[in-house]
Amino acid sequence: MSTTQTEPEERPERTAAETDEPIDPAWTEYGFDGRTKLAVDSLDVHYGDERAIDDVSLEIPEESVTALIGPSGCGKSTFLRCLNRMNDRIDSARVDGSVTLDGKEIYGDSTDLVELRKRVGMVFQQPNPFPKSIRDNVAYGPRKHGEVETGMLSRLFGRGDGTNEDELVERSLRQAAIWDEVKDRLDDNALGLSGGQQQRLCIARCLAVGPDVILMDEPASALDPIATSKIEDLIEDLAEDYTVVVVTHNMQQAARISDQTAVFLTGGELVEYGDTDQIFENPESQRVEDYITGKFG
Ligand SMILES: Nc1ncnc2c1ncn2[C@@H]1O[C@H](COP(=O)(O)OP(=O)(O)OP(=O)(O)O)[C@@H](O)[C@H]1O
Question: Which of 78, 101, 176, 218 is the most buried (most CB within 10 A)?
Answer without folding.
Answer: 176
